[in-house]
Design the sequence.
């Protein structure tokens, strides 16, 4: 990737792609009449607006939360465009949707985080911190794989994964200096080292190492009872730090993705993407290309207005 290129990222949405570049973002969606509708806006990240939020080990958590919000809004809007639906947008609806989202995330996260710890205690592995965290990490890994594999068979999710592949191909073409045509984009891989899927793997791997150390300190040195509840609380408390470290590692992986050692380290995350990305058709590539071009147009407009 050329050093003077702006970093581009994005995500798949319902029948489309959202692309984000420094200074702007855009979302392109294929409507039922087969036409592409694009929404583009100037955008400045919180880490760019506040220098303190851009500090190492803080920017990762801030960026994750901000992207979660933008991603959710993009998916909601893309559904409206793709299926011609509208939402009332009342305060009651907004509060209800927020409660549903929070509860869903809390329940899912609780199962993903607590169940491996509980099973670990049933097997009486908690006294050996290394073995214990290897087991918990492997259990979480298998839960994640099972979940992704399960939803990948759903027709709509499969199309989402195809748009995910189109997003990656388009970013690769841009990073290599190619004109964003369907022919140029088609030849690139659907696997990208900066994908959020790789972030999840790096977080899981980092957690195994980190928790093995911190659990030893908390439960052995500080003589705190080593039970499932205390271990769960301990893991939750330190999760933002692990996520922040993982974010920095992911950024380094993206920067030095051609390095042979980095390729080996990120390879497991790339393997994840054999599930979360699928080969897109040309119509999907066209949508992704339109989104990236429009994101840069929004960025340029922001610069002109400054």
Sequence:
């Amino acid at each position: 990737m050329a050093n003077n290129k702006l970093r581009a990222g994005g995500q798949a949405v319902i029948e489309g792609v959202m692309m984000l570049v420094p200074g702007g973002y855009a979302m392109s969606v294929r409507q039922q009449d087969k036409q592409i509708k694009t929404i583009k806006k100037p955008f400045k990240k919180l880490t760019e607006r506040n220098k303190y939020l851009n500090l190492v080990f803080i920017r990762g958590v801030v960026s994750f939360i901000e992207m979660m919000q933008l991603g959710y809004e993009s998916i909601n809007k893309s559904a409206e465009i793709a299926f011609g639906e509208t939402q009332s947008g009342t305060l009651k609806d907004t509060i209800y949707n927020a409660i549903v989202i929070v509860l869903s995330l809390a329940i899912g996260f609780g199962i993903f985080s607590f169940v491996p710890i509980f099973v670990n205690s049933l097997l009486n592995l908690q006294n050996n911190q290394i073995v214990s965290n290897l087991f918990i990490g492997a259990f979480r890994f298998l839960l994640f794989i099972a979940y992704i594999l399960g939803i990948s068979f759903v027709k709509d999710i499969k199309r989402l994964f195809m748009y995910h592949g189109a997003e990656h191909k388009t970013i690769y073409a841009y990073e290599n200096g190619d004109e964003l045509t369907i022919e140029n984009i088609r030849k690139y891989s659907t696997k990208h080292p900066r994908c959020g899927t790789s972030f999840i793997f790096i977080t899981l791997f980092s957690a195994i190492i980190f928790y093995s150390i911190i659990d030893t300190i908390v439960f052995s040195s500080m003589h705190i009872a080593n039970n499932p509840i205390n271990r769960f609380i301990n893991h939750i408390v330190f999760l933002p730090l692990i996520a922040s470290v993982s974010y920095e590692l992911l950024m380094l992986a993206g920067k030095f993705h051609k390095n042979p050692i980095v390729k080996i380290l990120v390879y497991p995350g790339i393997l994840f993407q054999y599930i979360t990305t699928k080969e897109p058709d040309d119509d999907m590539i066209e949508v992704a290309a339109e989104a990236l071009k429009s994101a840069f147009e929004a960025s340029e407009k922001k610069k002109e207005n400054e």
Q: What stands out?
A: The CA atoms of residues 58 and 196 lie 18 Å apart. The longest helix spans residues 91-122.
